[in-house]
Amino acid sequence: MKKRGRILAAALTGALLLGSLAGCGGDTSGASSGAADNASSGTGSASSGTSGSGVSVGFVVKSLSDSFYVLMKAGAEAKAEEMGVELNFIAPNSESDVQGQVDMIQNLIGQGIDALCVSPSSPDAVLPVLQQADAEGIPVLAVDNDTTFENKVTFIGTGSQAAGKIGGEYAAQTVGEGGKAIILRGRLGDSNHDEREAGFREGLEAGGVEILEVRACDSESEKAMNAMQDLMNRYSDIDIVCTTADSMAQGAQRAIEQAGVDIPVLGFDGTIPVAEMTAEGKFLGTVAQDPYNMGVVGVEMAVKAANGEEVEPRIDTGATMVTQESAADFVANLKSLMGES
Q1: Nearest to 180 by CA among 191, 172, 190
Q2: Could you give the CA distance from residue 112 to residue 121 in angstroms, rounded to a whole number?
Q3: Higher confidence at residue 268 or residue 15?
Q4: Residue by residue, what is the 3-state secondary structure of the chain?
Q5: Which of 85, 262, 266 is nearest to 163 (CA)?
Q6: So what's the pLDDT on residue 184?
Q7: How far, in Å, CA of 41 to CA of 335, rounded?
Q8: What gap in Å lies between CA 316 and CA 33, rounded to an integer?
Q9: Strands of 240-243's sheet, edge to edge?
Q10: What is the pLDDT of residue 152?
């Protein structure tokens, strides 16, 4: 369904509407819906009558080096195959490659896609190309990371500050009042990581935990490992490390393990590798978003938007705290969704 088809469909819909107007008269272990449960139940799913046949969807995320977006891709691909959607799911090599993401969106617009799902690395940087997509009649849906683009169809994702607070409260309960924490966060200016940091701060400080330092590591494991090595040299009294992405949790954990010290690390994303290591006791836990379901719902809502159907302006895909006790079941559920044993 290319642009000309969309315009014709909109015109027909308008005519039909004109003809019908006369007849129109607390607990951190379960603070939100479980991520994997949401995925299996189809949270926010489109109506079963929505057809994706002939619809092309461009889906651009920040990077595929993080398993979070790999899970999102799996969900999007599964739903696209089910609905007969032509899906182009792409990402730059790293989250810091903002211009690369802009160029990818530009290319998709040139290909004449019917709808665009995007997780913007920099909401301000991608704004001009999102405006261009809108001008071309391509509906824009924000997934995982919101955008400042006023004409977006919807935002699909986690309430990042509320989810960060879940993690901060759990961390504070673990170390107790008077504990001292480090926060490793994603790229400065990234609204998702701004909100997650704010949530962690809120939860930690409410529990009487002092935040020694916040360090930006751009969601990269190696940067987090190097930062953690430096921070352990600088501070001798770190009680816990909270990260705004699982990729940074993995880097921090490697640095701590190499140093031979015992500092619990809390992740954010609910990726399979960190959840598995949580089950083994190598991580304190991870605040689980639902990337698989974000991919599923993103494709479904993109099809609805391309077909001119109504879409809710905000769809919360949920968050939950994955702990050592719940991690094994969480991983098993995610793997089943991906067709793995």
Answers
A1: 172
A2: 22
A3: 268
A4: CCHHHHHHHHHHHHHHHHHHHHHCCCCHHHCCCCHHHHHHHCCCCCCCCCCCCCCEEEEECCCCCCHHHHHHHHHHHHHHHHHCCEEEEECCCCCCCHHHHHHHHHHHHHHCCCEEEECCCCHHHHHHHHHHHHHCCCCEEEECCCCCCCCCCEEEECCHHHHHHHHHHHHHHHHCCCCEEEEEECCCCCHHHHHHHHHHHHHHHHCCCEEEEEEECCCCHHHHHHHHHHHHHHCCCCCEEEECCHHHHHHHHHHHHHHCCCCCEEEEECCHHHHHHHHCCCCCEEEECCHHHHHHHHHHHHHHHHCCCCCCCEEECCCEEECCCCHHHHHHHHHHHCCCC
A5: 266
A6: 98
A7: 15
A8: 10
A9: 210-216, 180-185, 240-243, 265-269, 285-288, 320-322
A10: 97
- Across the range 227-237, mean pLDDT stands at 97
Between 301 and 43, residue with greater pLDDT: 301
The answer to whether 95 and 187 are in contact (CB under 8 A) is yes
- Return all residues near 90 (Cβ < 8 A) that are at least 6 apart: 58, 59, 60, 61, 104, 108
Is residue 245 very low, low, confident or very high in pLDDT (cuts 50, 70, 90)? very high
Task: Determine the pLDDT at residue 22.
Answer: 29
Q: What is the pLDDT of residue 31?
A: 38
pLDDT at 55: 96
**How far apart (Å, rounded) are the C-alpha atoms in residues 198 and 191?**
10
User: Would you state the structure tokens that stand for residue 125, as one six-digit string?
Assistant: 């940087």
Give the whole-angstrom CA distance, residue 53 versus residue 303.
9
At 115-146, the pLDDT tens digits run 999 999 988 999 999 999 999 999 999 999 89
The predicted model scores a pTM of 0.72
